[in-house]
Design goal:
alpha/beta; SAF; 15% strand; 349 residues; N-acylneuraminate-9-phosphate synthase activity; TIM Barrel; Type Iii Antifreeze Protein Isoform Hplc 12; 8-stranded parallel β-sheet
Length: 349
């Protein structure tokens, strides 16, 4: 499985985690707040910040009834029409350039999720380094072809998707010109529960589609993301806000700055801890070998006396014979006088 390049960064399971802070609508219609979110994300150590590029009119139509109205009692957005929700959540297109410019100032990547072809054309004019495809759009094959034709890396969320649907999307993207592809395991509930996250899909998806796989994580906290790294996630995407208390369409399941910093730190630690298959002492452990148990003389013994379980014991440190030889030692005679505290060796028998 090949690694891929996004901007100057190499993305793959054998490289440090690629952490994306998703701003979404957490700017609360303030460009000043949006730029502050970029500043906070960069300070937390992420590699990238992502926007969403759409308008209410490119997403849906303005109706307040039927399937266009959110009446699910478990939804964070109950009581809104789809149109009004997207009006609240969208990022004005004229903000994209200053936001991406601020990302560049901090040395992090700025990119977005386009939701229709006009958004792709707009983002191309801003020379974004890659594209994210949302779970709900991954079956929009004309959009997939449009994005793939740019030749830029694609990061595709797979929430709700069957294996057949993912396969169709991946084939479509590759046939249309995408060479660098990342799939994200995703659960399209907001927030998602850990029990509904099914992280064991990550290595299976990686092997099945022969590309890097990551996690678009909507659970609360950072535990699922850390577990994702342990299972081979190359990318972690989490929604990000300055403060959940400030509200916003996605604030309830977004990380705050200290939490994002902890996510970055712990993902890095989890990645470093994976290492490789290894047995025996590492170079760092060699000095600790002396603290194993071994056989020691614990009472003075004269030449010719027998070794017994009273005058020989398995204790620390580890400079004597291993404890497995105790039965061979008991009943043998001492070759010479042996002082208490002497490590047992074949030479004293």
């Amino acid at each position: 499985m090949e690694d891929i390049k996004i901007g100057s960064l190499t993305v793959g399971a054998k490289h440090r985690p690629f952490i994306i802070a998703e701003m979404s609508g957490n700017h609360n219609h303030s460009l000043e707040r949006a730029l502050a979110i970029v500043d906070a994300a960069a300070a937390a150590g992420v590699q990238a910040l992502k926007l969403q590029t759409y308008t209410a009119d490119t997403m849906t139509i303005d109706l307040d009834e039927g399937e266009f109205f959110i009446d699910d009692p478990n939804s964070l957005w109950r009581g809104n029409s789809l149109y009004k929700l997207y009006q609240q959540a969208y990022t004005p297109w004229e903000w994209h350039k200053p936001i991406f410019d601020r990302c560049r100032e901090h040395g992090i990547l700025g990119f977005s999720t386009p939701f229709d072809e006009s958004a792709v054309d707009f983002l191309e004019s801003l020379a974004v380094p890659c594209y994210k495809i949302a779970s709900f759009e991954m079956t929009d094959l004309p959009l997939i072809r449009k994005i793939a034709a740019t030749g830029k890396p694609m990061i595709i969320s797979t929430g709700m998707a069957t294996v057949a649907e993912i396969d169709e999307t991946v084939r479509t993207a590759r046939q249309a010109g995408c060479r660098d592809l990342v799939l994200l395991k995703c659960t399209s509930t907001y927030p998602a529960t850990p029990a509904n996250t099914n992280l064991l899909t990550i290595p299976h998806m990686r092997d099945l589609f022969a590309c890097p796989v990551g996690l678009s994580d909507h659970t609360m906290g950072i535990g699922a993301a850390i577990a994702g790294i342990a299972l081979g996630s190359a990318v972690i995407e989490k929604h990000f806000t300055l403060s959940r208390a400030d509200g916003g369409v996605d604030a309830a399941f977004s990380l705050e700055p200290d939490e994002m910093k902890a996510l970055v730190t712990e993902c890095e630690r989890a990645y470093q801890a994976l290492g490789e298959v290894s047995y025996g002492p590492t170079e760092a452990e060699r000095a600790s070998l002396r603290h194993r148990r071994s056989l020691y003389v614990v009472e003075d013994i004269r030449a010719g006396e027998l070794f017994t379980d009273q005058n020989v014991r398995a204790i620390r440190p580890g400079l004597g014979l291993p404890p497995k030889y105790l039965e061979l030692i008991i009943g043998r005679q001492a070759r010479k006088d042996v002082r208490r505290g002497t490590p047992v060796s074949w030479e004293i028998l």
